[in-house]
Specification:
With 546 residues, the protein is an alpha/beta fold. The chain has 13 helices and 24 strands. Helix 3 crosses helix 10 and helix 5 packs across helix 13. The chain is globular, with a radius of gyration of 22 Å. The structure holds flavin-adenine dinucleotide (FAD). Flavin-adenine dinucleotide binds next to helix 1, helix 4, strand 7, helix 5 and helix 10.
Length: 546
């Protein structure tokens, strides 16, 4: 099969047989989508479509917590400077300041909605922990290491109580494009496939709306080795690219330094061993018992994630004591480990490891995407009526590397901001224009080859030859796109994953430096000339990086 460098310009699906009309349609039900729905609901008619159950995104899995300045000994300025430092020169300082300033209010808002964050030692206080890259204790957590589940539970209940119309197992395919009275290209709605329990398509319809908010999360599943749940396949970013909207910073993928290593053949979502474990004193050791982070960074085991992930990858490459695919986390000295980290204890126990008496085998895995659709912290993009929030957006808050626990906070802050803005004013009415393009899909069984190529060649340390190989493999997969593939959730996702993977590889090939979480073996330092963003667009199905 000849390689192809074009991806489908639309997802192939059956003809729409129904339509509904609303003020705002939200795609996705994590922290960002639910926060937007809650802020909108008192004023606007909202339909929230989500491709699985409400809690299928990353939000439900977050362990560490939410970053916010709540300790009187800390300051907003400290949080801003820690975020800028982690972002390695590519953060938008204004967006960072807005996020940091609104973060404490976002925490209090979640508490008003009923979120039970872990209490501190004195009455009325919230417990705060530290994570990598934070100069102070400022991470609010719940249920020890079940912070995301508490945020998801709180927002799920609030959205249901507020009467938001939620449609589960509804897959957003592509936007419908229209034109405003002044002739401006704008979004008129979104095409949605209703799925059965096995991911087959029951029907396709169109939700017409004055505004479409994409809150579909990141694209960790593009990698074989990831902490992300199966739903996180980059759908919203691929949809935005097909709609002609620019994405940015796609090459900056944060690899969590420590997911539970579950054998060299493991694929799919892998259990995270939160940074908070190192925050409480655990240290990284190689198979020869030597400390991995000693002398690498002043903050040693609590250095920013990119530093820790790349130190682990380099140490694994040296194959100490003959072990080249994992290192160990020594958490044996942490008191009350089971109480403080119940989910992590359960994951370790399920793998036959007792973290209180044994070393935990760990390795880096794709965890968080710093890039996404270019948007402001209010969700605005270059396309009228089209808004993007949460992990799917690139707002400049994370730059080249996200500071731990800033993303749940961002989801709540940006979701609420876009909701408030659209409560005040909806975009102009749009007439549907005829921009219909023929859809294609790639078969879902290509996912395995795609994911393994990305993990193998586009991981923590990137070589020019590896990136070249990844591009070749993806090109071959793209040449399998056809209008005849049976439309299913898995095939829609595979096609979106291919689109994203091609854009990530192109951006990673273009950025000839190492910065933040993009590390090239042939350019081992950041370069002043690269102190800028790369943007990606699809032009006739071909990825263009600038
Ligand atoms: C294991 C783990 C631990 C983490 N720990 C932390 C932490 O401690 N602190 C922190 O700040 N961040 C953490 N993160 C990151 C954080 O959880 C995410 O960045 C954040 O939850 C993203 O929220 P979101 O609302 O943007 O997307 P998500 O929560 O991922 O939600 C996306 C939603 O979109 C839906 N969707 C996707 N595609 C479609 C489609 N085509 N049509 C319709 N619906 C669709 C999904 O089903 C889902 O409902 C962690 C992530 C993981 C995986």
């Amino acid at each position: 099969m000849l390689a192809n460098n074009r991806v489908p310009r639309a997802l192939a699906a059956p003809e729409p047989t129904w339509s509904v009309e609303t003020d705002v349609v939200i795609l996705g039900s994590g922290a960002a989508g639910l926060s937007a729905a809650l802020a909108l609901r008192p004023v606007r008619e909202v339909v929230l479509v989500t491709k699985d159950t409400l809690d299928a995104g990353s939000t439900n899995w977050a362990q560490g917590g939410l970053a916010a300045v709540l300790d009187p000994n800390d300051s907003l300025e400290n949080h801003v400077s820690d975020t800028l430092e982690a972002g390695a020169g590519l953060c938008d300082e204004e967006a960072v300041r807005t996020l940091v300033t609104e973060a404490p209010t976002a925490i209090r808002y979640l508490m008003e909605l009923g979120a039970a964050f872990d209490p501190g030692e004195s009455s009325g206080e919230i417990a705060l922990t530290r994570e990598g890259g934070h100069s102070h204790r400022r991470i609010v957590h719940a249920g020890g290491d079940q912070s995301g589940a508490e945020v998801q539970r709180t927002l799920d209940e609030s959205v249901r109580l507020a009467g938001v119309q939620v449609v589960e197992r509804a897959f957003a395919l592509d936007v419908v494009i229209g034109e405003t009275a002044s002739g401006q290209r704008a979004v008129a709605g979104v095409k949605v496939a209703m799925l059965d329990r096995n991911g087959g398509v029951q029907s396709v319809g169109i939700v017409y709306a004055r505004a479409v908010i994409v809150a579909t999360g990141g694209y960790g599943q593009v990698y074989a080795s990831t902490s992300n749940p199966p739903a996180v396949t980059g759908d919203g970013i691929a949809l935005a690219l097909r709609a002609g909207v620019e994405a940015a910073d796609l090459e900056f993928i944060q690899f969590h330094p420590t997911v539970l290593w579950s054998g060299s053949e493991a694929t799919g979502q892998q259990a995270l061993i939160s940074e908070a474990v190192r925050g409480e004193g655990a240290i990284l050791l190689d198979a020869a018992g030597q400390r991995v982070m000693k002398g690498v960074h002043p903050q040693e085991d609590l250095a920013p994630r990119d530093v820790v992930a790349s130190a682990i990858s380099r140490r694994m490459a040296e194959s100490p004591a003959g072990v080249s695919d994992h290192v160990y986390l020594d958490a044996r000295r942490i008191e009350n480990f089971e109480e403080r980290f119940p989910s992590i204890t359960a994951s370790c126990n399920a793998a036959g490891i007792d973290p209180t008496s044994e070393l935990i085998p760990v390795a880096p895995a794709a965890h968080y995407v710093c890039g996404g659709v270019k948007a402001s912290l209010n969700g605005e993009t270059s396309l009228a009526g089209f808004f993007v929030v949460g992990e799917a957006a690139c707002t400049g808050v994370h730059g080249a590397n996200r500071l731990a626990s800033n993303s749940l906070t961002e989801g709540v802050v940006a979701g609420t901001r876009v909701g408030r803005a659209l409560s005040w004013e909806l975009p102009a009415k749009v007439t549907v224009s005829d921009e219909d393009v023929d859809g294609e899909l790639i078969d879902s069984y290509h996912r395995a080859a795609l994911r393994s190529a990305m993990s193998r060649y586009v991981g923590v340390l990137r070589t020019p030859e590896g990136l070249e190989s990844a591009a070749r493999i993806l090109g071959t997969l793209a040449s399998n796109a056809s209008a005849d593939v049976v439309p299913t959730r898995k095939a829609f996702e595979a096609t979106n994953m291919l689109t994203i993977a091609m854009a990530v590889v192109e951006a990673a090939r273009t950025r000839e430096e190492s910065r933040g979480c993009h590390r090239r073996t042939d350019f081992d330092a950041p370069s002043r000339q690269w102190l800028r963003h790369l943007t990606c667009r699809l032009v006739d199905g071909k990825v263009e990086v600038k």
